[in-house]
Fold:
Amino acid sequence: MTKVITVKEDSKVLKEAAEKLAAGGLVAFPTETVYGLGANALNETAVANIFVAKGRPQDNPLIVHISDREMLEKVVRSIPERAERLMEAFWPGPLTMIFEKSEMVPITVTAGLNTVAVRMPSHPVALSLIQKSGVPVAAPSANLSGSPSTTRAEHVIADLSGKVDYIIDGGACQVGLESTVLDLTGEVPQILRPGGIGIEALQSVLGEVRYEPALKDSRQVPKSPGMKYRHYAPKAELFLVEASDRELIEQHLADYRQKGRKSGVLSCGGHYEADILLDCGQSAEDYARNLFDMLRKMDELGADVILAELPKDSGGIVPALKNRLLKAAGGQVLSQYVETKTERI
Structure:
């Protein structure tokens, strides 16, 4: 049976959840990015239960969440100087770094790789939970595998109630997209997943930083096994379209009406004759914060097909937002009333 609790960082019930976490239980908790599904990262059985609860492929590595430097030193073999600079600039926060793993980290966490992904979340409830548990916490997003990530406790309840021990309600997540994943094990740092920290910010600290080639070219073999899977997908069919191509959107909506398909539009400010119209907000940051919530609302409202306008801006969080939209849509982009497929960020 799942216990749902609403807490502040100093709540007594948070200590109860932390003790369960340390003892091998599963606890869903808020972070600044999305909700995470946590287990004791040093307990192989507990970690294996994450994969069962989510229906997650076994070759998709997990991120280890920590609350202090001592925990980091337990799970990594060494801390390079450039990681020190990134920690100073961006931790706690939405940056995950990949290190050579220590012997303490089970291979179930890393999917058999000799590297481990680590981050220190900035959400006070997440930090307090990890600190009170006394253990590093392996935590992917707290959703069923393949479905939109969870940015509110009610999303987690819908996906995982009855499958986990605790769900901690800490309100809506502030970033709304998962952390940036940066691989530090090669000569040049590479972004394996764009996220809340943009490439420009990383380059301002490190100098040269690149995107992993598979992010821009689907013919490339991804470095991390988890990059090959489709993620974030709603039940409805999802297509992406440039926000400036209003005529194209109207053409498709007319076609859907004729065919009796219930349509939805994620709009960057435009008004359309859709059955469901959701406004993405005034900025790319708003769009990112609201994206997964809007995709879930489209399913709740019974949309058969969704048209999502691509953000007009560039830089910052936009590459991460486009990455999530492309994965959610399975690469389906509409152009001049023709469906095309792309995997580029």
In short: Residues 284-300 form the longest helix (17 residues). Residues 237-341 form a domain with the Rossmann fold fold (CATH 3.40.50.11030).
